Amino acid sequence: MASRLYTNSPQNLYFLASPTKPRSFKSSVIVRCASIATSPNRWSLHGMSALVTGGTRGIGRAIVEELVCLGAKVHTCARNETELKDCLRDWNRSGFQGDGSVCDVSDRAQRESLMETVSSLFRGKLHILVNNVGTNIRKPMVDFTPEEFSTLLSTNFESVFHLCQLAYPMLRATEAGCVVSISSVSGFVSLKNMSVS
């Protein structure tokens, strides 16, 4: 699925409000939704549910917007409540309903609470889980404190594993569940001061 999220070429994108004269807008939602309206061969996620962790900025935000434009009901989470509210407000202004909750996925109890919310919201069925949250601490490995190392492991590894465990019954209930885990290029390439990320 992830390889097909961004298949439209840029020349097919225009704003719904004014197809001849693009206007600027803080969110990219209108652009992506317009591309769907002009591409009859785009596939649909109507009736499907998705959870995207860390969906208020960067890759996570783009994934949320794309999934919503393809028709999925999406719930996202972020640590920063203000950032989450700003995103939800932008998305609602753009014409679609987004749900979200504050959650630090490095905290086990908050992950469990998030999944209870998602289960209730989607009536026990989750089609797509996108593990997008990740963090890094840029300094030499020998300078890491035990707390910093623990933070990296709980955010980048334990949260993914535990969210998959918690989501399993909901994914299985759909009989077509999908898990997408976003990782860093530093898992494949040696980057200075990123040895533990």
UniProtKB/TrEMBL annotation:
Domain of life assignment: Eukaryota
UniProt cross-references to Gene3D superfamilies, sorted A to Z: NAD(P)-binding Rossmann-like Domain (3.40.50.720)
Compartments reported by the entry: Plastid, Chloroplast
Keyword set includes NAD: no
Keywords: Chloroplast, NADP, Oxidoreductase, Plastid
Family note: Belongs to the short-chain dehydrogenases/reductases (SDR) family. SDR65C subfamily.
Protein name: 3-oxoacyl-[acyl-carrier-protein] reductase
Organism: Brassica cretica
